[in-house]
Protein: TetR/AcrR family transcriptional regulator
Organism: Pendulispora rubella
Amino acid sequence: MASRRPKTKWGDREARLRDICRAGAEALAKEGYANLNMRTVAEGARVSLGTLYTYFTSKEELFAVLYADRLEHLVAEMALSCAGAKTPQEVLVIVAERYFEVYAVFGRELNIVSLVAGEELEAEIAPAVVGRLVSAARQVFATAWTAVARLDPSIADFSEAQRLLAVRLVWATMVGLADHVSGVRQRLHAGTRRELTEFAARVLVAGLESVRRG
């Protein structure tokens, strides 16, 4: 995967890091996580394999950084798209559709919940990388919740405990939907991905409103 871009000036560590992340993202999009290869990434970034390992100790750590990058971009995308939403259901559909794109590349490979819980991973990932990834994931949750609450006063009045439970429920549903629509199970059921997503959004919002009224 030879790069046609001019080689980054020697000693510019920040630019070199950007080169590596760009090459990693390109390799990931083309080959998928299972075939992500550090040598290929090094070639794409026009650095030696040894140099690459001074930035990332493993492909898992590189993947975690790329995942954090993508989630940070997702937050910006969601904030922009949700600003024009008219209903909480529309917000959840927007969030789901954006998240499906992320999950297809990243969501199956690294469980953020495991990182939050401090569970041991197969490969060591630097604490700073874990922290950045967890922070980005929480910002995704917060952005979605803020957009929904802005449009539905009954949800906006949730207590802190209710809000935390609601966010967990909504996100568990999003992950389940993403897993369903990206796999073969979707072929077992009639209807389109959009229909399923819109129905799930209506059910979630109706349920949350009911809880608040109760």
